[in-house]
Design goal:
The chain is mostly beta strands. 12% of the residues lie in helices and 31% in strands.
């Protein structure tokens, strides 16, 4: 579920909605209409998404094996060689 940021939509506001607040909501949830503190109208603010970069360290052979997965690497056309975990050394489409 994503966090959505809301901010006051009128001249009247409390400090809570003037500064903006975040709400954890389902994607299909109705947007918040009123400030939970003062009851004035609020609007959803478009913000930059949080994107995680550099996840290569999460997909290492060692990590896959530790978590109980088997990892294969393509060794040729229709042939895959095991690089981590349990299972046959090669998988072939033959």
């Amino acid at each position: 579920m994503p966090f959505y940021t809301y901010q006051n939509a009128t001249e009247e506001s409390c400090e809570y909605c003037r500064l903006g607040f975040e709400v954890l909501q389902r994607l299909n949830a109705e947007p918040v209409q009123l400030c939970p503190e003062c009851g004035n109208k609020v609007k959803k603010v478009i913000s930059v998404p949080n994107v995680t970069m550099g996840t290569k360290h999460l997909t290492t052979d060692k990590k896959a094996e530790e978590k109980g997965f088997t990892k294969y690497k393509r060794a040729g056309k229709g042939v895959y060689e095991k690089t981590a975990g349990k299972g046959p050394k090669y998988i072939s489409s033959d």
